[in-house]
Amino acid sequence: MTTQTRDLFSKFDPLIAEREALLATGVRDPFAIVMDEVKSPTQAVIKGKDTILLGTYNYMGMTFDPDVIAAGKKALDDFGAGTTGSRLLNGTYQGHKEVEEALKDFYGTSGAMVFSTGYQANLGMISTLAGKGDYVVLDADSHASIYDGCFLGDAEIVRFRHNSVEDLDKRLGRLPADALKLVVLEGVYSMLGDVAPLPDMVAAVRKHPNCMILVDEAHGMGFFGPNGRGVYEEQGVEKDVDFVVGTFSKSVGTVGGFCVSNHPKFEVLRLVCRPYVFTASLPPSVVATAATSIRKLMHAGEKRAHLWKNSQRLHKGLTDLGFRLGTETPQSAIIAVILTDQAQAVAMWQTLLELGLYVNMARPPATPAGTFLLRCSLCAEHSDEQVGQIIAMFEAAGRATGAIG
Ligand code: PMP
Fold first, then answer.
1. Which of 19, 192, 251, 307 is deepest in the core (most CB within 10 A)?
2. Structure pTM?
3. With a 6 A CB cut-off, is 246 part of the ligand 1 pocket?
């Protein structure tokens, strides 16, 4: 291999330098955390220390559910470790059909299609639905998988200001009336934990011809709405949404992605959607755990209530301590703490870790408006005692780093 002064890696030099400078200050690498042991949905051992997990998006705590684990073990024994093939060829097992049936029952839809990840579900749905001459209209703060779905496809991309009904309406009004448009929304936006005003957005979209609506409910599934379908169910717009995309990597507690829909031609997508066709299907153990978890989530009213209680208590606790949060009131199970700069965010993150609390750190360009965030995601399995400990650790870390007075 040649070592040149300038090569394809040169564009990463500023990032490498920034990272080296940060690590030289003695902080731990926020992006190199290893879970040595995971004891429960809310507890792990990190570098020998018992740590409360508050940044996993494991909202309903299904990762250690005994029925879910038993289903996975049985499928591993009965069907082997992997499918070694595409859904379209040798990779559709009975378990893939069963998880799609579970999704149809959960969402009350006629169609369900399972992908290998939620990322691929967005890539596949957006790039396949919206083709040349069509438009994808999306919120500026959309998840990377939504943007990447746009980049993979041939449609024109139109962004509107985050959660702005007025801007959505304005931008749709500028598009040719006869063009086909896919409007992509999210139920919960995961950076700040804020919820979309879906009824107003749907009303704005319906003023314009030839629009279909896709809602990503990655962070809403499991605990919004009477059946846990998501924000679109809670806000009563089920009939207006054409496609719901979701993931198994949050409330469901494993890995995988999906899209559900009532469209009569939905099944044709299995033949034409490249991120569905040209990749191996999920292992039998994963689809078995997902199907069991989804069916249990249909009866998870108590867990849901406890999760909301946890979210409200943490939001109030952090507000009372003087932290600036992503939303004025608790809107979801994500509570984002906004810090002034990278140094403060890293100092808080590391102090919390040393005290025994793991949260997610996020920084630009992933975050909106150049913010540095500590993102907390609550779990239905966090006990009252743990929420008390979390608030106490935030107080100690905030005082030690000067983030609060
Ligand atoms: N959509 C949103 C809004 C997400 O936050 C994520 C994951 N963070 C995904 C899709 C992708 O999900 P997965 O982890 O299954 O790839």
1. 251
2. 0.96
3. no
